[in-house]
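Researcher: Good morning. I'm working through a list of sequences from a screen, and I'd like to move beyond sequence-only analysis. For each chain I'm collecting a predicted structure so we can compare shapes side by side. This is the next one on the list. No need for commentary yet; just the structure.
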Amino acid sequence: MSTSASAVGVATESETPAEATHALERSLRAHADAVSYLGARTTVLSRFLDLTLPHLTAAQCQAIAASLRLAMQDAIAALPAPDLSARHRATLSEYTGAVLKLLDSR
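Model: Good morning. Structure tokens for this chain:
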């Protein structure tokens, strides 16, 4: 199935300024929707983590921390190097470290 450039929010040379503006607006809406989705998901998972941790034993936290370390190593290793920017790698490390710190503090 073929999709035109303007259908995905990319302006082409043959578009009028109005068409290009409309394409840009669609693209911005799509990106705003994606950010909103990620924000909502982050909020739910953060609250879940905050509510779950107090119910875990120290041994459970240690086991989860060990599993998380391995899972994140596998996740990073599975991504092709060009797809994993330095910023993405730093963010993965930062958030993994924050969760591991929470688990270790239990």
